[in-house]
Amino acid sequence: MQQSDRAGLAYVLAGFSTLSIGDAVVKGMAGLWPATAIAATRFTLAALALATMIGARHGWGAVWRMPSPGLQWLRGLALSIASVSMFTALGLMPLAEATTITFTQPLITALLAALLLGERLRPAAIVATLVGFAGVMLVLRPNLAEIGLPALLPLLAAGMTALLMIANRASVGIASAWAMQAYIAMTAAVLLIAATLIGHLSGAAGFRVEWPAWHVLARCALVAVSATIGHWLVYMGTARAGAATVAPMTYGQLIAAVLLGWVFFGEMPDAVALLGAAIIVGSGLYLWSINRMREPAERTP
Questions:
Q1: For residue 237, which of 12, 67, 194, 242 is within the disulfide window of CB 3.0 to 4.6 Å?
Q2: pTM of the model
Q3: Closest CA to 103 of 258, 265, 235
Q4: CA 145/CA 147 separation, integer angstroms
């Protein structure tokens, strides 16, 4: 393995582990503020920072001239739903189990790519998806019994993230990577602020927004910073070693989630949940391996 590959793997592992830190911070905020408000604050801070950076480098016109606006708003909507779903789930279920279920995203992405982009869905991908969702049922087993349908929120988050991946594919080449990050943060912030206001005005329990204690805002800022650092590390690692090489390192996020849940919340998945997690991870790695073997064959004349 080349030095650049080893560095890339280390960057990506550190990046996905850092993303779990943000999830742990959100879990610690359960009951302190609505998930919509947490997500709105997180993306508003990110949008302000990214827009300022893009404006300083390329002028403010580059911030407001959003290419393919319908596609950008779709990306923002998918990210908004995924964030609120995951933030809500973290307040209801163990960190490791909620994180585990989100790793169905590559499987769902393969299905959506076939449905929306016309990509061929190979039999191996169908098998990996069916096996992966069998693992999901094992992980969900106690949570569905205890909290009911809200236990499906991480699955909704995974589905929305998969939709985001499809929209990202359709967005390739229309703007710089930093600009695309700014656009998705801006659209998500607007949508989440609207969702926060609607939730507050509805009077529904759990959605009423009051001015939070200083430490709640500080934690939201920490989530924004940790997510930015995590995504930057993933980007740097991918640039050094390539997406196909570093893909298995995404599962470092699951290891970090198990450790953080155990240390800070006293949570430890039982044997059945660990088996389900192993099945989901194995399905994802199998799908990754067949995709990697397929790429050289497709490039051969």
A1: 12
A2: 0.85
A3: 258
A4: 6
